[in-house]
Amino acid sequence: MPDTHHPGRRSVLAAAAAGSASLGASWLLTGCTGASAAPALPEGAKAGTPDRGGTLRIARPPASEAETLDPASALSAYEYLGALYNRLVRIGANGELAPDLAESWEPDAKARTWTFRLRKGVTFHDGRELTSADAAYTLRHILDKATASPQAAVLAPLIDPAKLRTPDAHTLVVPLKTPNAEFPSLLTHYNCYVVPDGSARGIGRTGIGTGPFKLESFAPAGPGRITAFTDHWAGRPVLDAIDFYSVADMSARSNALLAGQVDLLSQTNLDFATARVVAASDRATIARVENAQWYVLPMLTTEKPFTDVRVRQAMKLAYDPEHVVKVALQGAGTPGWDNPVPPSDPAHVAAHPEHDPEQARHLLKKAGHEGLTVDLYTSSYDPVFTPMALAYQDSAKRAGIRVRVKTASADSYYTQIWMKKPLMATYWYTGRPVDQLFTQVFRGGSSYNETAWSDKAFDALLDRARQETDDERRRELYGEAQTFVVEKGGAMTPMFADRLVGISRKVRGYAEHGFEFDYLGIGLKGA
Amino acid sequence: MLSFIARRVLAALGTLVLSSVLVFLAVQALPGDVATQVLGKDATPDAVAALREKLKLDQPAWERYADWIGGALHGDFGLSLVSGKAVGGEVGMYLGNSALIALVTVLFAVTGSIVLGILAGLYRDRWPDHLISTVSLVGMSVPEFVVATVLVLCFSVALPWFPAVVLYGPEATVGQLMPAVWLPALALAVVMAAYIVRMARTSVIDVMASEYVTTARLKGLSSWRVVTRHALPSALLPTLHVIALNVAWLAGGVAVVENVFNYPGIGKLMLSSVQNRDLPVIQAIALISAVVYVVCNLAADLGAMALNPKLRTRGRTR
C-alpha cells in the first residue's frame, strides 16, 4: 500500500483469516520438516546479475473493482504506475532528489518560480515525443477537480494551473503562489506520473506513458500484462514482460509464491510466522526493505486527555521504543523515538529525550491524570499493529499508565477508527521528502493530519523552512521541526520496521525504497 | 399431496422475503458505507457526499429496499455500486465458477461418504467402523480453511501437482479453472462428507436392526441382497436431508475456501462486496443463496415423500 490507507488496497477480511491460516501453515511446515528452531530471516535479497529476458509474475492486492491506470486518481492500480510512467523527479537511493524526466531544475532567487528542463528524445508508448506541454498538462490534470486526485490538496495552494508556462518544447516554468524551496520534492509523489497531453479521458485504460514497460492488458482487480518498451529513454528493461495477478488474500498470495506460481508479492509486509515459512522454502525467500514502514500511535490532540501537552509528553516518556522493536518486530527495525523522519533520511536529526517512566509519572500527576487509563485501538489490518500495541501497553505500565488494547474490525478500520478514536495504531510507507511529510501529516488543517494537531508556531516554522533558499539553513530548520514534533506533537513513533517481501529465489536485482521500485533492473536468473 | 406441496412452496417464498429483509438490515448495520469504503481515506468530504447522492444513499433505507425488491421481481438486480456493471451478469459469472466446484464436491462427498457410511454401519464396532468414524469426526471438527491449507501444503507446495491459487479472473474458462477445482472441492468434501458419513452409518445401523431386515434374512436372502434391496433405500432416506442441507451450505459457505485458493467464485465475490459495502451485489448473492437453500430443502422433502410410503399415503388420505 502506498501512502493511502484505503481499505480496498488490501483485502482486509481476508487478512483476518490469513493470520490464522498462515499460523497453521508455519506450524505444519515445522512439523513436516522436523525443524525445532525457527530459521533466521535472511538479511537481504540475493545479489548477482539477472539474465536478459523472461517474464516476472507479480501477485498484488487489488485496490478495488473501480481500479484505474490514471496515476492521479485515488484508485490507481499502484503497481503498474512505476512501470508505465515516469515523473519529472524521483527520489534516489540516498533519499535525495534524482532526475527522471527532468534533467535539471532550478528556482529563482526567492524560490518562487521553478524552471524544469526536460530530457530530450523521450517518447511515449504510442511513439509521440514528450514535450513540456505534457508535463504542464499533467499538473493541470492533477489539479482538475474532476480528477479528485489526493495530491491536488497538496499542490493547489501552490500552483495556479493557468499560470504554468512552456517557453519551449523542453522547458516547464512553474510560478508558485508562495515561495517554496522544496517544491520539486512534492512532484515525487506517485500521483505525479507524467501522462500525455489531453489524455484524461482514456489514460485510465490505455496506460500510455514514457515508462520502461508498455501496457498489453489490464483488468480492474484482475490480471494484466505489460511488456518491455524497447524505445525507453534509459534503455530497455532486463525483463521481457511482467504479469500481474490480483490475489486478495494474504495467505493465498504467499501460497502462490511457495507453489512457484508467482515470483514476487507486492505491497505485502509478511508477518513473522509466514516470513519464516517463506524463507525456509526451496523456491522462495525474503527480501527486506529497510525501515520501509513507519509505525505510529497517533493521539488525537483534540480529545481528552491528549489535549494536554503534558499528557502527550508523558505518553512518550513512559515507554521504551527499544522494547517495542524487540517485542513487536523481533528486532527487524529501528526505534523511532517519536521522530517521524526516518533515520535513513538525510534530514534526520537524532534529538530525543531518554525513556523516563519516573518523569512521565511526574508529568501525569501535574496534569491531574495520575494512574491514567487509556483505550488503544488496533486491528488485524497489519500484522504488526497488535504486537506493537501490546508491547506499548507492557512498557508504559512502569509509568503507571493502564492501556486497554481494543481490537476493531479490520475492513472499516480506516473509515471508523482512524482519526476518530483518540488513540490507535497505524502506519505509513516511509520515503516521503521531509517537507511533504511535515506538511501532509503534521501541519494544522491538512487532510492527512491524523493527530488533528494545530500549532501556529510549528506551521510558521515550516513556512520559514520551505522559503529558505540556503540548503544548510533549511536543513537546520527541518531539524528544529523534528524537535518540535517530538516535544509537542500528538504522534508517537515507536519504530520504523523493515518490510518483509516474499520473492522467488530466481529474482535478481530487486531494489525498492519508499515508493521507488526498480522496474528497469529487476530480472530473473535462468530466465 | 398437492396442498402439502403448495404449503411448502408458500413457506419457501415467505422465507425468501424474510431473508432479503434481514440481509438488508444487516448490511445497514455494517460500519461505514460504500462511499467511504470505495473512496477511502483520501476522499474529501465533498467527494463522499457527492457519491452518496449519486448512489442514492441519502434516501431512507426502506425506500432503497423497495426500489431493489421492485427491480429484483423483474429480474433486474441493479448496478454494482463499485464496478458499475449489471449485478445480474456479474453474479451469474461468479456463480457459474462456484457451481463447478460445487458439482465436483457433491460428487466426491455424496458418493464417497455414502459408501463409507454404509461400510461403517455394516461393520459396526469393528475396525473399519472405528477408523471411518474417527476420521469423519476429525473432518467435522477441523475448519475448512485448515483442511484447505493442509491440502495446499501437501499437493501444491510439497508435491507440485495442483495450483495453489487461481490466477485467472472471473472470466476464466472451464478449461482454465479445471486444474484448480480439485483441491477446493476436496477440502469442502472432507468437511461436508463427515456429516453424511455419520448420518448414513446411524441409519444403516437402525435399519439393519429392524424387523423387516431380520425377516428378509430369515427368508434366506444373501447379505448383499438384504443390504441393497431392503436396507439401503430406507437407510438413505434420513441421509437425504443431511445431503440437502450440506448442498445449501456449499452454496453459501464456500467463501473461506474460495478465498484461500483465490478462486473467482461467488464466495470471493461476497467477501469483496461486503468489504466494499456493495449493497446490490450482497443482496443479490443473499437472495440467490436463500433460493438455493429453500430449493434444496424442498427437494429433500419431496424426495423423502417419494421414498417414504408412509408420507405418501398420509398425503393421499387427506
Automatic annotation (TrEMBL), chain A:
Q: Which family does it belong to?
A: Belongs to the bacterial solute-binding protein 5 family.
| SUPFAM superfamilies named among the record's database cross-references | Periplasmic binding protein-like II
Q: What GO MF annotations does this protein's record show?
A: peptide transmembrane transporter activity
Question: Which keywords describe this protein according to UniProt?
Answer: Signal, Transport
Pfam annotation, one family:
SBP_bac_5
Q: Give all residue intervals belonging to the Solute-binding protein family domain.
A: 96-447
Q: Where in the cell is it found?
A: Cell envelope
Q: Which GO terms describe its cellular component?
A: ATP-binding cassette (ABC) transporter complex; cell envelope; periplasmic space
Output the Gene3D superfamilies linked to this UniProt entry.
Dipeptide-binding Protein, Domain 1 (3.90.76.10), Dipeptide-binding Protein, Domain 3 (3.10.105.10), Periplasmic binding protein-like II (3.40.190.10)
Q: Which PROSITE patterns match?
A: TAT (PS51318)
Q: Which CDD domains has this protein been placed in?
A: PBP2_NikA_DppA_OppA_like_17 (cd08503)
* Protein name in UniProt: ABC transporter substrate-binding protein
| Superkingdom assignment | Bacteria
Q: Which organism is it from?
A: Streptomyces liliiviolaceus
Q: Name one GO biological process term.
A: peptide transport
UniProtKB/TrEMBL annotation, chain B:
**Principal place of residence:** membrane
Its membrane topology: Multi-pass membrane protein
Q: Which GO terms describe its biological process?
A: transmembrane transport
Where does the sequence pass through the membrane? 99-123, 135-159, 179-197, 235-261, 281-308
Q: Which domain of life is it from?
A: Bacteria
Annotated compartments: Cell membrane
> What InterPro entries does the record tag this protein with?
BPD_transp_1_N (IPR045621), MetI-like (IPR000515), MetI-like_sf (IPR035906)
Does Transport count among this protein's keywords? yes
Task: Determine if Cell membrane is one of this entry's keywords.
Answer: yes
Q: Could you name the Gene Ontology cellular component terms for this entry?
A: plasma membrane
- UniProt keyword annotations, A-Z: Cell membrane, Membrane, Transmembrane, Transmembrane helix, Transport
The ABC transmembrane type-1 domain sits at: 95-300
Which family is this sequence assigned to?
Belongs to the binding-protein-dependent transport system permease family.
The molecule here is called ABC transporter permease
Q: Which organism is it from?
A: Streptomyces liliiviolaceus
